[in-house]
């Protein structure tokens, strides 16, 4: 094992001894109650299968036939989740053929950040993760189940499902994806059209035509944003079938993988001899593997929040220094848009996640000594599915990248360090995504321009007030202020200014889209403005340094910045459902602690 990875893992284990021990004690107590239905009264049980057929009732009356919970984030507005409409019927049939039962236990909300980007609804986006966790817990709380299948893909949905499921860590849990849409408009062309629109060179109708050509059918958006980073994370942690993340919807292989997920979760129940509960998979080593995969593939910055919250739900304490230290040891092996021009379909064809897992395991960059849904050892994930003679078969992943413009071996990486960096200084701590930014733009020292909203920034751009070197500062965007929306709307405008030859960057206590790139951005600034962060005291003309090479994040002023009065942007707290989330804003933790509502996160 790489010594840095060993050391980071060791200190996470040491730091987490008390909280991890308490979590495992709680989970073991839940297991000792035996198969869940055995604790229910006759009245409870009668309610639980009242709507079932007589055969199913007979099976569920005893404790020897496993019952699998289906928890789904289906809705037909999200292109990624629309295919899930037919999954419950297929899952029930597959379970029946294996002598088991599957019941639809509950649905969870699933909002599309692509729809809400730059809109008022985005203020609910991050908090929807914890609502999903709560909804997952409600679904499983009926205590009728011996295992669970979680159907989800997109941004907050997979983390929310996993956080909720971890409260039922005595159950085996398998995640079931639906796959990405087939490739549409080239991502580089999509970015060009967006910048043309921001510059006023094309009409809204032309922009919509391009966007519709990019997002054009059922399936996950094909760029490597938060949704597809979720899929990577599920494979690297060992909770999703290997090679299944990027198989397109509606294909024969996709259908067989769904059936296999049913067989896999049944294999791990406590009714047989191969018990493999969720709590025994998501441990310190698995979390390190998830972070390592994030760094090696240049994934979404949102996972510096989500992985921390997921880990905390399993009693594991992770911080951004862990990410930073791991980044120093893990090379960048993939270039997928926004870090390159390829999409996830091209990445999958070049070798995909199986190639990355094999390369990293072979070079001591991942823990093989972990549990997965396929048993012990992450090397189980160095294989990929294929259909042969109408049946699902597994073959070894390829050992050579089929396109080194997209995917490279460890000995010949795109970069010596991972795709995310921690910067720190007198302004606090922030995350920078470097994998999508040209190295010549990795550092800036320039005067601040302070904005109170994205709309104010766009107005200044349209009024030609930004034709200079500067660092845009947008504060009061953290979880305590307005729910920490993504600020992806700024990306095209900053990109235009950078193309014009200006040195620009963004500093914010908000988030950026997992698809953002190209422009240097110090995001998720901690502490945020609302809890005393100095970002609220920055004024126009203060000199800000963001240096991803050296990890520097600082401000120079002509006076004592600490003596200044903080200025807060008063974001709307009502409308579009925001009034219902006041308690969330009051309770939310910092970005570095996972921005979670739950104790320990």
Structure description:
Helix 7 (125-140) runs parallel beside helix 8 (157-166) and helix 11 (226-237) packs across helix 13 (284-297). This protein has helices at 3-15, 17-32, 42-48, 54-60, 87-97, 113-116, 125-140, 157-166, 187-198, 204-214, 226-237, 252-267, 284-297, 303-313, 320-327, 344-350, 352-362, 454-462, 479-482, 491-499, 582-587, and strands spanning 67-72, 101-107, 147-151, 173-176, 371-372, 375-376, 383-388, 391-396, 420-425, 428-433, 443-451, 470-474, 504-508, 520-526, 543-547, 552-556. It is globular, with a radius of gyration of 24 Å. The mean pLDDT is 93. It has 2 domains: 3-32 and 66-182 and 217-396, no CATH class; 421-570, IlvD/EDD C-terminal domain-like (Glucose Oxidase, domain 1, 3-Layer(bba) Sandwich), CATH 3.50.30. It is 36% helix and 14% strand. With 601 residues, the protein is α/β, with parallel strands linked by helices. The protein contains 21 helices and 16 strands. The strands form 4 sheets. An 8-stranded mixed β-sheet has the order 9-10-14-13-12-11-15-16. It has a 4-stranded parallel β-sheet with strand order 2-1-3-4, sandwiched between helices. A two-stranded antiparallel ribbon has the order 5-6. It starts with a helix and ends in a 14-residue tail after the last helix.
């Amino acid at each position: 094992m790489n010594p840095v990875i060993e050391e980071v893992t060791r200190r996470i284990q040491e730091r987490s001894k008390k909280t991890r021990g308490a979590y495992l004690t709680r989970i073991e107590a839940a297991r000792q109650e035996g198969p869940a239905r055995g604790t229910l009264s006759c009245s409870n049980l009668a309610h639980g299968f009242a709507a079932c057929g007589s055969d199913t009732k007979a099976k569920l009356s005893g404790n020897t036939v496993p019952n699998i919970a289906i928890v789904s984030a289906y809705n037909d507005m999200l292109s990624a989740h629309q295919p899930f409409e037919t999954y419950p019927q297929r899952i029930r049939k597959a379970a029946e053929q294996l002598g088991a039962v599957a019941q639809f236990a509950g649905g969870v909300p699933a909002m599309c950040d692509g729809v809400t980007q730059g809109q008022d609804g985005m203020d609910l986006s991050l908090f929807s993760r914890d609502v999903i966790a709560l909804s997952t817990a409600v679904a499983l709380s009926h205590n009728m189940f011996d295992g669970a299948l979680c159907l989800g893909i997109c941004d907050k949905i997979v983390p929310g499902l996993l956080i909720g499921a971890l409260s039922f860590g005595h159950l085996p849990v398998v995640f079931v994806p639906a796959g990405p849409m087939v490739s549409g408009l080239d991502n580089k062309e999509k970015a060009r059209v967006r910048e043309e629109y921001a510059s006023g060179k094309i009409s809204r109708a032309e922009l919509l035509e391009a966007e519709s050509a990019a997002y054009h059918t059922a399936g996950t958006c094909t760029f490597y944003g938060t949704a597809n980073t979720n899929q990577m994370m599920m494979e690297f942690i060992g909770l999703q079938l290997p090679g299944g993340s990027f198989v397109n919807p509606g294909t024969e292989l996709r259908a067989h993988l769904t059936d296999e997920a049913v067989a896999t979760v049944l294999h791990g129940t406590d009714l047989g001899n191969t018990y493999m509960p969720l709590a025994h998979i998501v441990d310190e080593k698995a979390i390190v593997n998830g972070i390592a995969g994030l760094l090696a593939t240049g994934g979404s910055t949102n996972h510096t929040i989500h992985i921390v919250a997921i880990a905390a739900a399993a009693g594991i304490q992770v911080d951004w220094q862990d990410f930073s230290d791991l980044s120093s040891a893990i090379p960048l092996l993939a270039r997928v848009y926004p870090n390159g021009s390829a999409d996830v379909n091209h990445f999958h064809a070049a070798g995909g996640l199986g190639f990355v897992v094999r390369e990293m395991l072979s070079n001591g960059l991942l823990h093989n000594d972990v549990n997965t849904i396929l048993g012990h050892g992450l090397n189980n994930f160095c294989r990929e599915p294929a259909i042969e003679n109408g049946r699902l078969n597994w073959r070894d992943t390829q050992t050579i990248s089929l396109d080194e413009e997209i995917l490279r071996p460890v000995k010949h990486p795109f970069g010596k360090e991972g795709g995310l960096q921690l910067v720190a200084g007198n302004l606090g701590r922030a995350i920078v995504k470097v994998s999508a930014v040209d190295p010549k733009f990795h550092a800036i020292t320039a005067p601040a321009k302070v904005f109170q909203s994205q709309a104010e920034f766009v107005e200044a751009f349209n009024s030609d007030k930004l034709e200079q070197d500067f660092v845009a500062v947008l504060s009061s965007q953290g979880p305590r202020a307005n729910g920490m929306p993504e600020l992806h709307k700024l990306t095209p405008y900053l990109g235009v200014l950078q193309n014009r030859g200006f040195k620009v960057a963004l500093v914010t206590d908000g988030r950026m889209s997992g698809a953002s790139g190209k422009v240097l951005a110090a995001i998720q600034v901690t502490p945020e403005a609302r809890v005393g962060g100095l970002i609220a005291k920055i004024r126009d003309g203060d000199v800000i340094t963001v240096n991803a090479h050296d990890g520097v994040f600082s401000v120079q002023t002509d006076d004592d910045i600490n003596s200044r009065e903080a200025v807060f942007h008063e974001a709307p707290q009502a409308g579009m459902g925001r009034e219902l989330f006041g308690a969330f804003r009051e309770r939310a933790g910092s970005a570095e602690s996972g921005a979670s509502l739950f104790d320990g996160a």
